[in-house]
Amino acid sequence: MPKGSEELTNSRKEEIINACAQLYETMGFRDITIRDIGEKTSFTRTSIYNYFQTKEEIFLALLQREHEVWIADLEALASRRDKLSTEQFADALARTLEKRGCMLKLMSMNLYDMERNSRLENLVAFKQAYADTLSAIRTCLNRFFPAMEEKEIRDFLYSFFPFLFGVYPYTTSTEKQRQAMEAVGVEVPQCTIYDLTKPLVEKLLKASGERHRSAGGTGKEEIT
User: Fold this and answer.
1) Which end of the chain is least crowded, N or C, by CB within 10 Å?
2) Does 218 score more than 50 pLDDT?
3) Are 59 and 110 contacting, i.e. CB atoms less than 8 angstroms apart?
4) How high is the pLDDT of residue 128?
C-alpha cells in the first residue's frame, strides 16, 4: 500500500472502482483488462497494483460496494415508521433490488472468478458486506413481520438469496441469445428484476403466514 493519507488511498480506490463500473456497462468481464481500467483513471496503470493485485479484486470491490449501497436502502426500509402489508413490503424490497442490476450481473456471471483470484483479505471484506446484507434483510423481516419464527426467517433467506444469483439472466439477454432462443422456439422472457422479485417475496411471506394459521399462531395480522 502506498504512503499517504487514508483519504487519498480511499479516493484512489474509489476512482479505480468507478472506472471498472463504467467499463462493465458496455464490455464483458473477460474483455476488461487492468490497462483498460488504468486508462480511465488519473494516475498510471502500474499504480493500480498498489491498491489491487488483479482485476478480479477490483470487480470484487465493485460488488462489495453494490452490496453496501443496497444495505443502506434496506436500512432505510427497516426504519420506516408505518406498517407494511405483505404486498407493500414485497413492493418496497423489489424496488431496492431493481436498482442493483450491476450487483446481480456480477453475482450471476462472475462471482466464482472474482473470489478465486482475490486475496483472502479482500474476500473477507466482501463476505462481511454479504453477511451485513443478510442481517439487513433479517432486520426488515423482524420489523414488519414480528410473528415470523427463526426457522421461517432462515427459510426466507435460503430461498431469496439463491434467487438473486439467477434473476439477472432472466431479465437481460443479448441479441445473439434472443436469436438462439427464437431459433429453437423458446419464448424470450419479457420481465424486469422487479417483475420477478415482488411475486417471489409475496409467495415466501404468504407461505409463512399460512403455516402460522394452520398451527393456530398469530401471524394473520402481520402476514396478509
Assistant:
1) N
2) no
3) yes
4) 98
